[in-house]
Amino acid sequence: MDTKAGSLKEQWKEARQEQILDAASRVFAEQGYHSAKMKDVATEAGVSNGTVYNYFKSKEEVLQALLHRLNQTEQRADAFAEGLELSSFRDFYGAYAQHRLNFLEEHLDLFRALFPELLRQPSLQETYQKEVTGPSFELAEQFLSAMMEAGQMKKFDPALGARVMASQVLGLLVLRLLGDPVLAQKHDNLGELLTLFLCDGLLATPQPEDNHNE
User: Fold this and answer.
1) Domain 7-57 CATH class label
2) Are the CB atoms for 94 and 168 separated by under 8 Å?
3) Where are the chain's structural domains?
4) What sign has the CA pseudo-torsion 18, 20, 21, 27?
5) Over pLDDT 70: what percentage of the chain?
6) Helix, strand, or coil (residue 101)
7) Do the beta carbons of residue 63 and residue 42 sit within 8 Å?
8) Confidence of residue 53 (pLDDT cuts 50, 70, 90)
């Protein structure tokens, strides 16, 4: 097969797949996952029902692909590689945390439609752990270990550390889904505050007179 023709075919396939996922994002966000039908996705995408099933065997497979999108699974490796090039965890974390929160804010309605399904279906949780969170945590652990080796961070359990950092973003997302008004108003300040909490802590620096009395 002509290499160029094969490349164009792959690009067309990827573009069509993204077109269907874009449509599914809108349909699931508007109708809810349970109410939405695959034919609704096809109509929104401007393709036939058969075309949708050529790319996704079921609505659950579409759901899994959208969960990958929300996790930005394919971009994680590049993001952590860029973080290592910065050689500064502080610079990396503030920007990355804000980027993740901004992305999830843009897709809040979709996350609201999909997250209950993730909680409701044990089989989906297992797949999500295996294909999404597991590999993402592994990348984060490798990144944290490299930062420790470079002397940028104190020594700690990288597996637990990766999950603690992820919980900050996830916790804020859950509060946002619950309609917290402060997060809605001050969303753009979260990356900076998360960096302050993680890198500097919350305790004030002791004053000189305090040290004098010790």
Assistant:
1) mainly alpha
2) no
3) 7-57, 65-201
4) positive
5) 93
6) helix
7) no
8) very high
